[in-house]
Hints:
This protein is an alpha/beta fold. The chain is built from 14 helices and nine strands. It has helices at residues 12-21, 33-41, 49-55, 66-74, 79-82, 97-108, 122-128, 139-149, 164-192, 197-204, 212-223, 232-249, 254-268, 280-287; strands at 2-6, 25-29, 45-46, 58-61, 88-91, 113-116, 119-120, 131-136, 153-160. Helix 4 runs parallel beside helix 6, helix 9 crosses helix 13 (254-268) and helix 9 packs parallel to helix 14 (280-287). The protein is elongated and about 65 Å long. The termini are far apart.
Amino acid sequence: xxxxxxxxxxxxxxxxxxxxxxxxxxxxxxxxxxxxxxxxxxxxxxxxxxxxxxxxxxxxxxxxxxxxxxxxxxxxxxxxxxxxxxxxxxxxxxxxxxxxxxxxxxxxxxxxxxxxxxxxxxxxxxxxxxxxxxxxxxxxxxxxxxxxxxxxxxxxxxxxxxxxxxxxxxxxxxxxxxxxxxxxxxxxxxxxxxxxxxxxxxxxxxxxxxxxxxxxxxxxxxxxxxxxxxxxxxxxxxxxxxxxxxxxxxxxxxxxxxxxxxxxxxxxxxxxxxxxxxxxxxxxxxxxxxxxxx
Length: 294
């Protein structure tokens, strides 16, 4: 099977490499040629977008947001016009469910199936192939493509029709953002009250407050490590999509809106490219106290 992969960034590059290592013929495209070369070194091939659209049995995209996906599929590149009946398009980007449905409708007119399959797990899990996939689309198409997704992730769950994958991802991002904020807020409470946040972390991580988010992001806050696994700017994008979706269906997201404003503050103060665990810096800026020794 020939798989095309467009978008070899922080997430897309290791995902495509894992497919190549699994034995698939992978054609890759990206604006950064060094990313394409990394795929080639892993056994993949370089190709332009038009060639990928024409030749791939399955076309996968991993792009920043809805405008980029729509531009590639329906706009400037118009890959939908270059594809043919029988192909499958899998969009792993985290975008608006409305945009997913728009692209799917255009492809359906040509007999092309689509799955929206955003991921969770960040760069480390993309590298080791243990991402979580949330997938929307026809169940028969999902079943056909599940083995492909399982080469990149350990959890591959069908969530419903097209758009359901991205709706699930937005719910995930809302929960993650609120959880990171709560961890930072709790640690700062301990710090300001004279208790070592490291001790608090060890004391509570095995109880009800413990979470995957706390274990992944708490140590980063406590060590001052802001190297991005998932950037604040990308999380802002996801929360914007969540709020727009909520406005369309009448869902209340007051906590999400507050956390997004905190992230916007950090973006304005030069932290947008930092890991989203840098939400701790919002509290550090307010209090003048530091959670880490750095």
